[in-house]
Amino acid sequence: MSMSIKKAFAAFTAKFKTKPTTMSNTANQTKIGMTYRKLPYTAKLAVINSRLRQGDLVKVAARTGFSPNYTSEVIGGLYQNAKIVNKAFDMTRGRIKNSQLV
Q: Which single residue of 36, 48, 65, 71 could bond 61 by disulfide (Cβ 3.0 to 4.6 Å)?
């Protein structure tokens, strides 16, 4: 009663296969308003600029190690820097928009 190598290998690998998981929009939600999904660079800039408060650029500059001038130019769209944009996005994503504060 010997099993063929192909059948034995298939039985062995079947034990370690994982089922594909569906991505839930609410499972990874940590802050109100934004879900954990990959956003394009320009969409992140739009979210950041709609929720930016006074003093945020200096905080982002200090946390990323870049100058406040360069950080301001990146957030303004003059240059591209994913590290700065991601840090600013993480800081502002749980806030309400500035237009809703009025």
A: 71
> Rounded to two decimals, what is the model's pTM?
0.63
Per-residue 3-state assignment (H helix, E strand, C coil) for 34-102:
CCCCCCCHHHHHHHHHHHCCCCHHHHHHHHHCCCHHHHHHHHCCCCCCHHHHHHHHHHHCCCCCHHHHC
Residue 76 CA to residue 69 CA, distance in Å, equals 10
**Phi/psi of residue 28, each to 5°?**
-105, 15
pLDDT per position as a tens digit, 57-102: 999 999 999 999 999 999 999 999 999 999 999 999 889 998 988 7
Q: What is the mean pLDDT of the chain?
A: 81
Domain ranges for the chain: 28-97
